[in-house]
Amino acid sequence: MVFSSLEFILLFMPIFFGIYYISPKCLRNFILLIGSLTFYFIGTIKNPEHYVLFILSIIIDFTIGLILGNKEFKYKKTLLCIGVIFHIISLSYFKYFNFLISELRNFINTPNISIILPIGISFYTFQGLSYLIDIYRHKIQPEQSLLRYCIYISMFEQLIAGPIVTYPQINKQLKKRIITTDMIKNGLATFIFGLGLKVLLANPLGKLWTQVGTIGYESITTQLAWLAIIAFSFQIYFDFFGYSLMAIGLGKMLGFDLPKNFNHPYTSTSMTDFWRRWHITLGSWFREYVYIPLGGNRHHVIRNLLIVWLLTGIWHGAGYNFIIWGFFLFTLITIEKFIIGNFLNNHKFIAHIYMFFAITISWSIFAIDDINQLMIFLNRLFPFLEFGPSPFANDYLKYFSQYYIFFIAGIILSFKQPYALLSKLNNKFLIFILCTAILLACIYCMAKGLDDPFLYFRF
Amino acid sequence: MKKSNYFILSLLLTSVLCVTLFAYLQNLKVSSKCQTTIVSETILPEVIFPTTPEPSKDNNIYQPINVTLNSTLFIGDSRTVGLMEYGNLPDVNYFCDVGMSVFNIYDKNISVPTIGRLTLNDLLDNKQYQTIYIMLGLNEMGYEFNSIIKKYEELLSFITDKEPDSNIIILGNLHVTDNRSNSDKIFNNTNIDSLNIRLSELANNKNIFFIDTNYLFDENGALAANKSADDTHLFAKYYEEWANWIIEKSNTLVKEE
Fold first, then answer.
1. ipTM
2. What pLDDT score does B43 carry?
């Protein structure tokens, strides 16, 4: 069950929040746990073993955490290693097994097995790891309440797509949180706005990207290739940003203050800057738990950067393209750090042009998992490399006329000014009308099946 | 450990127990369903389309169809849109749109290249075609077959009234890939084959013909997986080959006098 589904909006939300708000404060954590487990159970209904793994992971981390917090315990490092290895093995197994098997198939006869990735495993694994490492480093005291620890890991609003929350960020709110009517209204408005970004903007643009894939990259013009990759760049941003906003909004409605995950990344002037603004909680996690422990900026900087960016690449998915993508980011960030960083800081216009190409090429590598197809697509983007004309010369006009409104909205909403304007809106009636209109439009699209870029409701 | 922790621990373990039990019951259901499916698969008929008679040199009761491109019209859904854009048959007219079906075809006001925006009725009033292709059926999936066929018959009679001298060629619907066919209750190859059989029965080999278009891109009764990104539509690079094959195949058809 995703947030942008009718079941979640029309069924789960009203029932859960109805019970949550009428319950006495002392029971709210319990209600939240039941709600979150139900949410996860519904999500894993076809693969119940994923639910078992999730609960096992919670119990293991909580127990290890308690033991690590015991001052008299001598084998803390060993125990931490056990916890870390457990998480790395379970994440690697589910995330990379299919890829490894398909690669092995080139050399030996392997069984035709396919494993489904458990929902949210990339996120709850990182939260569990940060919790154990923070206790080991004496940064935090272990949580004594299993209920509160369960909530830290399983809160439904951040369970399946982040933001990646660390324990110190919500530690106090797990014990005591204040929920005001203004927080609920504000949270609901944030949720609806995020829903709108996903359903009304990201999904239609995703459909263009899917359509271009259906045509095949060999048969598109350079103009359509650019339209497609810009569409994908907007889609991935507004999809993830929208989802993060929904999580933050739901968090507010529950009384939690979840960290911000995006800060207008497409206005960045360097790739380094971009990754400080894109999926902020993931970047912070890698900096805190991988880059700095490796030596950070103090020694072996290039090695440290290479490790972090390759890990960032493979965290996003299993495939050679994710490794190439990680390496591409490492290369740009290293060049910026040692060579062109100051130049970009002083020449904003050139920096934006550089970022336009850097972002679109990086998303091409990210989005196309077949290396041959990726080369064809890059050749289409830069036609001086190879390739003749497309058989349908005006393809870009056809698609631009269908999607231009979404491109305009995407460009406007990539800047910070529209959000600043929205946050200054004081007229409650206007906010109500705006939110109602967005919500109704989203419900309409979801009911019609228009929200799913991969769903072919018409041929 | 605190007492409340034992309570939560027992709650978590109970939920795991319930989930395991649920999974077990689900498996029982699925395995009984599988048995039913295997039984039904064994009684599925083989797909055999009515064949067009061979031309005979001894008598002149059969006349070959000759397709003249500038007097040809293609009517259809998104796959015909693909033919129009990538088929490289510039002299042909196309009345096609994504989502077109026998149920909505008369309401469509479509921009036909070199002619303008008009309805099917206006288009057929505007020009006499020697050959008219119809490739519809996939958007209709999910409706009851009898109602689809009834609407198809209405469309054939509508076209025949407007264009009495035309040869109408029904193109069978292209398969989807195994991946889609195995996971989609409606858009699967069993349903597509059943509909294609019903459509082939509409052919009279006098002015209405049927061509099974799955010859070129099929692999074991399904659209070859490497020829489609979405398991349904061909990559654009195959449309030209497909268009040429359709024309060539049409030229081998013969008319019973």
1. 0.75
2. 36
